[in-house]
What we know:
Blueprint: E1 6-8, E2 17-23, E3 35-50, E4 53-67, E5 74-89, E6 96-98, H1 100-110, H2 123-127, H3 137-144
Antiparallel strand pairs: 1-6, 2-3, 3-4, 4-5
Bound molecules: zinc ion.
Amino acid sequence: METELNVYLSEVTDDGLELSGTLDDSIYGFEDEFLKPFAGLRYELGVLHVGSELLVRGKIEQDFEAACSRCGEDFDFTVKIPDFTASFAVDEKTEFVELTTELRECILLTLPTYPVCREDCPGIEKKEEKAPDSRWDALDDLKKG
Ligand SMILES: [Zn+2]
């Protein structure tokens, strides 16, 4: 997998440039016990060079493995950004524009502060099942009899 994404202006034609691929998880520089990116940052981007600006637009996705902030169970979720946009000032001296940081920051900003495995996760306490009360067993036997 790629560890950086650079757009060389020489490759951006008048029709623009289409980019797609996957960036390695190492771009995040962290592997938290409670939050871990995996499978890479997937991107599908269109690039346009307009005057002194380089415009980038498209969709990006990243899978994460996290520990639920309520029940502590591990679960996976995907951050999807269908409308990523960024613009960069460029001039005749600009050789390339580095996109990695922008993509990474965009994903990180979208991350939930307290990830939960599901919206209605009851948390630890309610999840513990009560031990069956054996006093009722006798009653069941009666009914069967
Ligand atoms: Zn949970």
